[in-house]
Each structure stands twice: as C-alpha cells, then as structure tokens.
Design brief:
InterPro entries: N_methyl_site, Pilin-like. The chain has about 160 residues and is α+β, with helices and mostly antiparallel strands. It has one domain. Helix content is about 35%, strand content about 25%. The strands form 4 sheets. Strands 5-6-7-8-11 form a 5-stranded antiparallel beta sheet. Strands 1-2 form a two-stranded antiparallel ribbon. A hairpin with a 5-residue loop joins strand 6 and strand 7. The protein is elongated, with a radius of gyration of 26 Å. The N and C termini lie far apart (about 65 Å). About 25% of the residues are buried. The mean pLDDT is about 85.
C-alpha cells in the first residue's frame, strides 16, 4: 500500500520564507514612510479648505451686498471679514469659515484683525515650522474700501513632516 504525503517539504518551506523575506525588504521602506505622506496629505487638505472657505465667504459677502469689513454667516459660523475676505484669526475669521472649532487636529497660532496678518496651522503633536499651513489675509488700501491689492495667500510648508 502506498502512503499519501501531504504538506510542504522542508525545502519548499525555506523557499517560501526566503521569498517573503525578499518581499518584506522591498515593501517595508514604503510602509515606514506612510505617516509622512499622511501628514503632507492632511496639510494639503487643510490648504484646499482654507482656499475654498475664503472664496465662499467672499462670494457670500458680495451676494449680500455688504461692505468689505462686514462679517458674514456661513452655516451658523460668524466669519469676520477684512478687505472682502476672512480675517486671519486663530478663532473666528478663516478658522470659523473652515470649521476648525477644536484643537484635536490642528493648532492655530498668530493672527490679527488687520489685512495682511497671518495665522499658522500646525498638526497637533507635530509643532514644527517645517510642517504647517499659513493663511495670509487679503490686503487693500488704508481706507478699506479700495480694490483689493492682494488676495489671501495660503502657503504649505511640508519639508519636515
């Protein structure tokens, strides 16, 4: 009577382990860098939100026909404006327009009511000048009624994420 064999031989098992080791050596570095990619993607998403919210707030103000410095209401948030765009404020202004109401994801610093002021958003837990998004408010002539001289600028710095 012939005996039926089943399973792997020792050589087959060693070959599978070697192949898995080779695959892991090439795949592991890619997976190790995913946290950096995720941080960069998060900053890019925030920058896009800042640009969109700024444009929506401006459109809302123009549609309402109010003066350039008047606040607008976006989905229940009072967005304080300067020069026809949201102010660069850590609370209120552009932060309210984007909907950043807590600091679990981003830490906002700086900001002022004047045109040309900046507010900086850094990932909470990764406070670094090389991993941040900066919003600079619109600037205009001194009387706040002249045409905008510079629209808001959103800058991403992600070299240290």
């Amino acid at each position: 009577m012939k005996k039926q064999q089943s399973g792997f031989t020792l050589i087959e098992l060693i070959m599978v382990i070697v192949i898995l080791g080779i695959l892991a050596a090439f795949a592991l570095p890619k997976f190790a860098d995913l946290s950096s990619d995720a941080k960069k993607a998060s900053l890019s998403g925030l920058a896009g939100s800042l640009k969109s919210a700024s444009a929506i707030a401006r459109s809302s103000q123009l549609a309402a026909g109010v003066t350039l410095g008047t606040a607008v209401n976006l989905d229940g948030a009072n967005v304080v404006m300067v020069n026809g765009y949201p102010q660069a404020l850590a609370t209120g202004g552009i932060s309210a327009a984007v909907g950043i109401v807590d600091t679990s994801d981003y830490t906002a610093t700086g900001g002022a009511a004047a045109g040309g002021s900046t507010v900086t958003y850094q990932l909470t837990g990764k406070l670094s000048a090389t991993c941040q998004v900066t919003y600079r408010a619109a600037t205009a002539a001194a009387d706040n009624t002249a045409p905008i001289t510079a629209a808001p600028v959103v800058t991403i710095t992600n070299s240290g994420c």
